[in-house]
């Protein structure tokens, strides 16, 4: 179990990391501002190509990993392709099942399903939650066909918006008594609340949205507000503001929370980790002071990005039964 620092210390996490400061001083690291939801649709192909060419892609060890494409059906008859990662050499017995709402996860001989879902602005809240839940249940029902045995471990995870989805999935799975149960949840810089839904008792602690409003990098207050406008969630619903889940957080699986200090979502992760721990959930919290949202992907050369990658590996081992 991680020790969670007192909330009076959280603002100090926004002091910029010296390595990252050098990058900020030498180049423009900010995304162009967007105001029209149609821009997202138009930019999506270019963004996908940019992600494929990012330096972190070369840092992922894909040796011994086979990648396939599978189709996952949703409740309305629609289906979308998903990436399936599994050992290139079939192991003697099936490995754990990992369902990610983003790419990655090439470890522990696991079978990894990287899920696609219908996205905003074309598809508003809660469409992607329905798609994600359908995909999770499909992956579980078809685990043996995929070469997985979820009784050996069943992890869901995601980053940013994907972290929001994974957190919601863990609550739905608990409430719906999904079997075998999820054994671990990996949440990298997740969205779990909003300024208009934060409980009054926490409002004085929920300051990162203003403190890091002009944070350098891919996410600041303006871009966060724009993306929320495109998604158009009911911020009072636990399907978005999972911090306020109606049936609470007790009996959730082991959860790994990763927090960026220079991120408008900093306090989302810190508050969520604390509230899970209060509810008796085993929590591993890793904090990266002075770096922005998604730094491990955008700036993988940073020392803290290497630490994050190692922290994730250790956390996956922990969620699969290690100490």
Detail the topology: elements first, then pairings:
Blueprint lengths: L17 H9 L11 H16 L11 E9 L5 E9 L9 E4 L10 E4 L12 H15 L1 H4 L7 E6 L1 H15 L8 E5 L19 H4 L9 H11 L22 E9 L3 H13 L4 E10 L2 H4 L4 H17 L4
Parallel strand pairs: 3-4, 3-5, 5-6, 6-7, 7-8
Antiparallel strand pairs: 1-2, 2-4
Helix pairs in contact: 3-5
Protein name: AB hydrolase superfamily protein B1A11.02
Keywords: Hydrolase
GO molecular function: hydrolase activity
| Intertermini distance | 10 Å
Shape: globular
User: Can you count the helices?
Assistant: 10
Query: What's the helical proportion of residues?
Result: 25-40%
How is the CATH topology named?
Rossmann fold
Structural class: alpha/beta
Poorly predicted parts: 103-107
The fraction of residues assigned to DSSP E strands is 15-25%
Mean pLDDT: 91
Biggest pleated sheet: 8 strands, mixed
Secondary-structure element string:
HHEEEEHHEHEHHEHEHH
**Strand runs, count:** 8
The number of domains: 1
In CATH's first tier, which class applies? Answer: Alpha Beta
In CATH terms, what is the architecture? 3-Layer(aba) Sandwich
Q: Please give the radius of gyration in angstroms.
A: 19 Å
CATH superfamily: Alpha/Beta hydrolase fold, catalytic domain
Side by side, the strands of the main sheet go: 1-2-4-3-5-6-7-8
Keywords: Hydrolase
Protein name: AB hydrolase superfamily protein B1A11.02
GO molecular function: hydrolase activity
InterPro entries: AB_hydrolase_3, AB_hydrolase_fold, GDXG_lipolytic_enzyme
